[in-house]
Amino acid sequence: MKKSVKKSAFGVDPAPYEHPCVPEQLCLFDVALLRPSGRSMQRFCSPAGIGEDVLPDQSHSQNHRRNRGTKTCRAGEQTRGLTYTKIRFDAESQAFAEANLHRFDDALARAVTWLAFWDMTRDGEFPAERFVDMTLRLLATETESTTFRYALACMSTTAHHYVAPARRDDVLRHVAAELWTLANAAEAGSDTQFQLATAYLGYGEEGDAAFAANAHGLLDGTVRLEGLEIDNNFTWTIVQALTSVNEMTNDDVDAQLAKKETTENREFAYGARASMATAEAKEWAWDQALHNDELTNSQLEAVARGFSATPRPDLAEPFAAKYFETVDWVWANKTYHMAEALLNGLYPGYADPATLVKLGDAWLDEHIAADNALKRLIVENVASSHRTLKVREYNEAL
């Protein structure tokens, strides 16, 4: 039988149409409407008719579809007030998309499909390591800056927080090596090159000689990525990457600051000192953020960010209980802006999520009458630990 081949809506050269995994059969949830009858009408891209409207019981797909935030409407009206959707694929479509996403030449299709995989990953429905590998393949060809930047951020969250702890170090080293390779292959002077180099600097580990050599080399000029501008801000990004793996000391930070002491660079220096991977540095940062009233708001924020930026559970764990013991004092003694910066910046997110969940839930149970603004800050932080715990347990069980 002659096999017909058509151009996919996803912009790739598809398999023959009768193949069960061709892009035309990736049923993507597009919009949801609420008909006057109250029945939900959902729009799919499907082989039977691109963009056709179907009722749930008429759908071609076995996908799970959940929508949240759809506005109710008065009789006779329709609404497109959908604010949040989740996309799920049938098994064959998912396998095709995972293997071929980097080949889709339609930017919107790539972004929507990749975001579906990210959503599955953070819901504990797709393996974290496979998401990391899939994202690395996407980064090798992605041309949209916003998608590229978001993919880097989500991959970092996955590698640092969602991967099973026993596999985490290997995954981080793998990602670092791939990012460095991609940065070297990127177009000279491009935004892609800059984003890749910046992301790479977030994957340092103490004792990683290759990382230390690359970071020191970028700082002193002995390692060059053609076209990459090492401006003042990027210089301090490198400095903090080195302090976070104990490759620079406080004296080194002071020497760097002395080259150009400005208000902004003093803030960078505070952040670099706070990010050092030692218990002493974390105690110093904790004390400075909470009790040094001479810090400007920007300096306080830099210290708090540096405190929590070091991806070392052993350094974060001692502050889990201290954090919840300090919340009430912070709220009572700081302005709202400063309290927000402290309660978000000092949250020890790299500590054991089970510990954070236990302590956080207990605090919330004991503070039912607390200000809603305060509870919102704590709820959001504890919710992130709930998610991390759930997703890690899923990946550990694989």
Biggest sheet strand line-up: 1-2-3
Helix-strand topology string: EEEEEHHHHHHHHHHHHHHHHH
- Strand % is 5-15%
The pLDDT mean sits at 84
Tell me about the largest β-sheet: 3 strands, antiparallel
Which bin fits the share of residues in helices?
Answer: 55-70%
Tally of DSSP β-strands: 5
Structure write-up:
By secondary structure, the protein is mainly α. Helices cover 57% and strands 6% of the residues. The protein is built from 17 helices and five strands. The protein has a three-stranded antiparallel sheet, with no helix packed on it. A two-stranded antiparallel sheet has the order 4-5. It is globular and about 55 Å long. The chain starts with 27 loop residues before the first strand and ends with a helix.
Which key phrases capture this entry?
398 residues, mainly alpha, three-stranded antiparallel sheet, two-stranded antiparallel sheet, 57% helix, 6% strand
